[in-house]
Amino acid sequence: xxxxxxxxxxxxxxxxxxxxxxxxxxxxxxxxxxxxxxxxxxxxxxxxxxxxxxxxxxxxxxxxxxxxxxxxxxxxxxxxxxxxxxxxxxxxxxxxxxxxxxxxxxxxxxxxxxxxxxxxxxxxxxxxxxxxxxxxxxxxxxxxxxxxxxxxxxxxxxxxxxxxxxxxxxxxxxxxxxxxxxxxxxxxxxxxxxxxxxxxxxxxxxxxxxxxxxxxxxxxxxxxxxxxxxxxxxxxxxxxxxxxxxxxxxxxxxxxxxxxxx
Length: 262
Ligand code: LHQ
Fold this sequence. Notes:
By secondary structure, this protein is of the alpha/beta class. The protein has 2 domains: 197 residues, Alpha-Beta Complex (2-enoyl-CoA Hydratase, Chain A, domain 1); 48 residues. The strands form 2 sheets. The chain has a 6-stranded mixed sheet with strand order 1-2-3-5-7-10, sandwiched between helices. A 4-stranded mixed sheet has the order 4-6-8-9. A hairpin with a 2-residue loop joins β1 and β2. α1 runs parallel beside α2. The two termini are 26 Å apart. The structure holds ligand LHQ.
């Protein structure tokens, strides 16, 4: 698939989306947001079992491209709500809804809506030199694209408030220590770690991965009883999957399982 501001590839059950405006730190333009969303649909068509989102150059993503807007004609001219409703909301919702694990490989800074994009992914791995920046407060905005939803859930209100109101850089290593992201990895081993992770996920029991993410996200709004009922529903479906038969048989036969994602 040919896009202008992202690069999409599909190999060995892995879809990779590379944000590709390195000279502007992969800040998000309208075409880029549309392409990103389209690439999610493309990964479905390709039958991907894992989706990787990464940046090109020295950054992951610096958020909304601020040069797309004309700030010279007064505030009434700006329709940020419409922009979010039209482009960001469906993108973030689609990432959450995808029935495969989505990995953000945060190769450099993730700022503004770029941080939200990373946090919308199921597993976030960052290089030690990367940082997360809730840049919104520096320009008079609030964390958006799900930022005010992700932050308190991941790190609690105290740290969410500090990050959002002060806009200080959070190093990847602190982000991992705080539980904002899954792992911080040395820059030298980053590519190898991401390859190993995506390869592993591409051979995982994909339906179980999908139900795992949906159950964990649903937990935020469920009672314990409702959550256990949801687990039962998902487990029932997985009990009828080929991967469960394969996984359990492989265990009993003391051999590695070969999951097909079905
Ligand atoms: C950029 C950007 C950028 C354009 C770097 N835009 N050019 C808002 C509105 C509506 C709806 C949706 O959601 C949002 C939420 C948002 O995401 S608002 C935007 C939030 N992001 C920011 O405020 C971050 C702005 N960028 C920065 O503060 C810095 O660039 C950081 C701290 C990320 C990196 O700093 P440096 O490493 O010093 O790089 P730099 O500033 O020199 O940037 C390199 C180039 O990228 C530069 O262009 P130039 O032509 O001068 O070389 C920047 O202008 C451009 N760039 N971010 N968001």
